[in-house]
Specification:
heterodimer; A: alpha/beta; 10-stranded mixed beta sheet; 36% strand; B: alpha/beta; Rossmann fold; 6-stranded mixed beta sheet; 9 helices; 12 strands
Chain lengths: 455, 250
């Protein structure tokens, strides 16, 4: 029944949902979070749910995700199970500070064992909006507002919780912080999670975000994460997406970089029926560097769409972008990489590469580089390919006694490794390698073998 | 060891090999010479099992087994080795992982346990000596960024690692300077023994100064038109291929 609903009707249903529940959404939350909501829902009304074919959604039908019937939770559940006892890290070598969010809510009880250094603030965004009001007000919704996206304004209107992370000036994290987002429940659920990360001047931190589903219901997670990276800070953001294949995920990541800062983002999509990732990077001050990577290994009827927008606003910045996809069966995918080099952004270096392998004739991939260069003294390059496994290379391996299947594996792994090798956490390179290999061999089911053990 | 009878093969419906007969015994070195386009590389590709080519007639047995029915990897595991004229670059697959996998797949085929890391690394070090290959090269991706000479050395290095019974060297001399040629030829000679055999495919006689053949065949227009001793190569070098073309016409 919900399958045939059109995007306009759905928009009104969602606006109505907001109006009906406005009081419960606002309840208990401070003005500096609530003040954006009414404007956001008006923006949502204006923008609607983009239809397939619109510029940023040329190959992706958001209604696959939004057109279903979901439940909504406007209050945190009283939890009776400690999530941290249900889940153990499957990878003993991956020594991290682990935080768990359940259905987008940050429960203090789940995160008593994170053992974070006392300098770090890691808490619910609800809590931070009160306890760190000034910092919060300075950064919350600033980047999302600069790029008004339908899915982001929808999130701004509804979001009630998520992760807040603050790494103070000069602080260097020894271990990575691992944020595990779990979705579970007995009913379909739409989750609007909102995260805010502030990396102070000259600080260093690495964050690993794992997205999982623990039950078979239809889930839609529509997440917005804003990251503010101050001068000379080094910040890594690794996102491992491994939700079940009936679930939908829309993840919008905003990164704002100050002078001399250096960021790396890496999105690894293993499972998930519908995945749309938006990555916005603004190189706002000189000598900032952004490395933006993505890898997806998909099959069945999975659909993955990566949209990136790198804004070179000032001179002397570097961006380096590489996205790769391997598609099997009837999987489909898209990449749209926009790079904007503004008029005075001289000495910009911006590189983009998107390479894809379709293993079957029914797997399809669409790629669209979009370079807009208004400065004249720049080095920019882009390249996009969609192809098959290199038969010459496969024969070469086979001629040395390596079996056909194994040879294909080696070549796919080699293809993926070009992305993996850029990870800046040595042990994570190995773990990624293992995950990718198991996924390619079809041995990785969505509920096991990840960083999280499912019972 | 290798028996080829009336082998016909082609690509996209075009016949290239038009009835090859060839017999290679253990301990022998055969040279196959011929002008460009005569079918030399097709013969090596068909024997190694390259799927681009279709065999239309004839037979080829290797140590009593029907070679043409085997997958490329099984031909290799049975002891057939092809040194490629144009070795393929494979970014992302390290030489060490490539060779470890290949050696262990051979061992598995022979019912042996995988080699321990220690033994494998020792073997790697020993075999590097054969072709004086650089440590730098074995720590890189397969053939990625190698010079022409390094690629050919790498082929012979792989041959040393896999210890084949029959090696087919497809234009191993092409693009090699004289020093690299000597190193590669020395490598091949060091690996030679009474139980293995080599087929050297070449356009020029020069390589045969270093790898001395027992038998020389001249391939022309998909057929072996002349077979003789090593002096045949010298005759060919002196008279040129036109001599053969004329002789065949008559």
């Amino acid at each position: 029944m919900s399958e045939s609903i059109d995007s306009n009707t759905m928009k009104y249903k969602l606006i109505n949902l907001y109006q009906q529940n406005r009081a419960s959404i606002l309840e208990g939350l401070p003005e500096n979070m609530n003040r954006y909501r009414d404007a956001a829902i008006r923006d949502f009304d204006r923008m609607g749910i983009p239809e397939k074919g619109e510029e940023k959604y040329k190959y992706t039908d958001l209604m696959w995700a939004f057109g279903k019937t979901y439940g909504y939770a406007f209050k945190a559940h009283t939890i009776n199970v400690d999530s941290s006892t249900l889940f153990q890290c499957a990878v003993p070598d991956l020594d991290t500070h682990t935080l768990i969010l359940e259905n987008g809510w940050f429960y203090e009880r789940n995160n008593e064992h994170a053992a974070l250094p006392k300098e770090i603030v890691a808490c619910s965004i609800r809590e931070a909006s009160v306890t760190h009001a000034e910092l919060f007000a300075k950064h919350y919704n600033q980047q999302a507002q600069e790029h008004p996206e339908s899915v982001s304004v929808f999130n701004t209107a509804f979001a009630q919780d998520g992760m807040f992370l603050y790494i103070p000036d000069g602080f260097v994290m020894g271990k990575p912080i691992q944020i595990i987002n779990l979705l579970r429940g007995n009913n379909p659920l739409l989750v609007n999670q909102r995260n805010l990360i502030v990396a102070g001047k000259n600080s260093q931190a690495k964050v690993i975000v794992c997205d999982h589903t623990l039950s078979h219901q239809n889930f839609l997670s529509n997440t917005v994460t804003e990251v503010f990276v101050d001068e000379q800070a080094v910040f890594d953001y690794y996102n491992i997406q491994n939700q079940h294949n009936q679930s939908s995920q829309v993840a919008s990541l905003y990164i704002y970089q100050k002078k001399g800062s250096n960021t790396l983002t890496n999105t690894l999509t293993l499972h998930g029926g519908f995945v749309r990732n938006n990555v916005f990077v603004k190189l706002a001050e000189e000598h900032a560097e952004a490395h933006v990577y993505g890898l997806s290994l998909i099959d069945g009827k999975q659909h993955v769409d990566n949209y990136t927008f790198i804004d070179h606003a000032v001179p002397n910045c570097l961006s380096n972008e590489m996205y790769k996809n391997i598609l099997d069966d009837d999987a489909t995918g898209a990449f749209n990489g926009r790079i904007l080099v503004r008029k005075d952004a001289q000495k910009t270096r911006a590189y983009q590469s998107n390479k894809n392998i379709c293993l079957t004739p029914t797997a399809r991939f669409f790629t669209k580089p979009q370079l807009e260069i208004y400065a004249d003294d720049v080095k920019c390059s882009h390249g996009a390919t969609v192809g098959q496994i290199n038969e010459e290379a496969q024969f070469y391996l086979q001629s040395r006694g390596i079996g056909g299947r194994e040879a294909r594996m080696m070549l796919m792994y080699a293809f993926a490794y070009e992305v993996i090798r850029n990870i800046r956490v040595p042990v994570l390179v190995e773990r990624y390698g293992e995950l990718v290999e198991r996924r390619l061999r079809g041995e990785l089911s969505r509920c096991e073998g990840c960083f999280v053990h499912c019972n | 060891m290798l028996h080829i009878k009336n082998l016909k093969a082609g690509v996209d419906g075009k016949e290239i090999l038009k009835g090859i007969n060839l017999e290679v015994k253990p301990g022998e070195v055969h040279a196959i010479m011929g002008p460009n386009g005569s079918g030399k590389s097709t013969l090596s590709a068909v024997l190694a099992g390259n799927g681009r080519f279709t065999v239309t007639d004839g037979e080829a047995t290797f140590n009593g087994k029907n070679l043409l029915e085997m997958a490329p990897e099984d031909r290799a595991r049975e002891g057939l080795f092809l040194s490629f004229q144009y070795p393929v670059e494979i970014p992302g697959v390290s030489m060490v992982n490539f060779m470890k996998t290949a050696v262990n797949e051979h061992r598995k085929y022979q019912g042996l346990e995988p080699m321990s890391a220690g033994d494998f690394l020792k073997m790697l070090r020993d075999k590097k000596q054969v072709v004086e290959i650089d440590d730098r090269l074995t720590s890189r991706s397969v053939n990625e960024g190698f010079s022409g000479g390094e690629k050919k050395k790498n082929e012979i290095f792989q041959m040393a690692m896999l210890e084949p019974k029959l090696s087919i060297l497809d234009e191993t001399d092409s693009g090699l300077d004289i020093d690299a040629l000597r190193i590669v030829a020395n490598g091949v000679n060091k690996l030679k023994n009474a139980n293995n055999a080599t087929i050297v495919i070449t356009h020029y006689q020069r390589l045969l100064d270093y790898i001395v053949p027992d038998v020389v065949h001249i391939l022309y227009n998909g057929l072996i038109v002349k077979t003789g001793g090593k002096e045949l190569a010298l005759e060919l070098e002196a008279k040129g291929y036109d001599w053969i073309k004329e002789a065949v016409k008559v």
